[in-house]
Amino acid sequence: MTDPLHSPKAPSMRGRRRRILSLVNKREAARVSRLLRAEIVGGVLVMAAALLGFIAANSPLADAYTGLRDTHLGPSAIGLDLSVGHWASDGLLAIFFFMVGLELKREFVSGALRRFSTAIVPVAAAVGGVAVPAIIYALVNAGTPAAHGWAIPTATDIAFAVAILGLIAPRIPPALRMFLLTLAVVDDLIAIGIIAVFYTSGIELLPLALSILPFALYGFLVQRFPAWFARSPWAPWLILLPIGATAWALFHLSGIHATIAGVILAFLVPVSGRGGTQLAETFEHRFRPLSTGVAVPVFAFFAAGVAVGGASRFPADPIAIGIMLGLVLGKPLGISITTWLLTRFTRADLDPAVRWRELIGVGALAGVGFTVSLLVTELSLTDPADADTARLAVMAGSLIAVAVAAALLVRPARARATRE
């Protein structure tokens, strides 16, 4: 089969240029289209939940909202007496990270990241899109305790970004849609590594060692009986869920952020098992509504509840300036410059359907950092005023990034007709 990353007119010789940002194949394109539609729905739900949380925190319902968020639930004897807001960020987001882990594994095993030629561009662009915002924030906040929040503007919220892309540029080339999706997936992988390495306060070895047992049991079951778990509507809930919850609880007690447990559990699920069973894909279809319809919206509802007239120092504080500059300028600069360097100094070239203006617009859209950015805010900034300042900056920076992306991606009807 002809490699779609190569131009059909290009001679088969050393030194030929390779097209980048092209779709891998029709099957992959169809899968990406289905995933994009799901993310659009999820993005709309998250936006609505975040808006409701923000309104509740700035309305006569503020006391009731805060009381609900700070209500503690769970068994205190084993260290799981957590607030509702904490359950949302550590518990429900583990479901979101489980879905991220499934998508990551599928991309590495059978998707765009399985070959170096298709993986190098989104991987390099994601690294650039993480490094530049982090550097900008670190420079603005150098020498202050808030410098620990350098990772806040590095994340891309894929549900938000894809939903907004579908609204402002529904006819953008499919290659760019896949680029954004793959870029965000790699971005999530980097964010997972950052959380695990830089935002783990201390490690308790006993619960960490004990967590190996449920992880091992979970891995054995999904690898040994993938067809059964794929067919049965109840086995994953009655068998795998308690095992996964045990692993999550032990991870939480170990001091490592518990959402990482969701990623590990996802990586244990086989992409293709015995008899051609694709358990990872089955789990994606089965559990994505729980993630996009419940877990992430509930987290957004509580995370976005910042009182404008509260303790925050938004927008003049260096924390806010660093986050907004990182999201609005750092993301598109890091992504675009990295991609330009690849086309300038390697044999790679952009697909003819992709324009640099649109690529920069997609890079700007990657500055919509919400879910993971708000999570990193909770992990990195302990002072309530700093945290509120950062949350408002994440929301404001994301809105500005949308406006910049719209200016670059939205074309008049005449221009679209000319192009078509």
Automatic annotation (TrEMBL):
GO molecular function: sodium:proton antiporter activity
Reactions the enzyme catalyzes: Na(+)(in) + 2 H(+)(out) = Na(+)(out) + 2 H(+)(in)
Subcellular localization, as worded in the UniProt entry: Cell inner membrane; Cell membrane
Keyword Transferase: no
Topology class, membrane: Multi-pass membrane protein
Record GO biological process: regulation of pH
Keyword line: Antiport, Cell membrane, Ion transport, Membrane, Sodium, Sodium transport, Transmembrane, Transmembrane helix, Transport
Listed transmembrane segments: 35-57, 84-104, 116-140, 146-167, 179-199, 205-222, 234-250, 256-273, 294-313, 319-342, 354-377, 389-410
InterPro entries per UniProt: Na/H_antiporter_dom_sf (IPR023171), NhaA (IPR004670)
Record-level GO cellular component terms: plasma membrane
Pfam families listed in its UniProt record: Na_H_antiport_1
Highest taxon, organism lineage: Bacteria
Function: Na(+)/H(+) antiporter that extrudes sodium in exchange for external protons.
Similarity comment: family membership: Belongs to the NhaA Na(+)/H(+) (TC 2.A.33) antiporter family.
NCBIfam families: NhaA
Protein name: Na(+)/H(+) antiporter NhaA
Organism annotation: Leucobacter edaphi
Organism classification: Bacteria, Bacillati, Actinomycetota, Actinomycetes, Micrococcales
Gene: nhaA
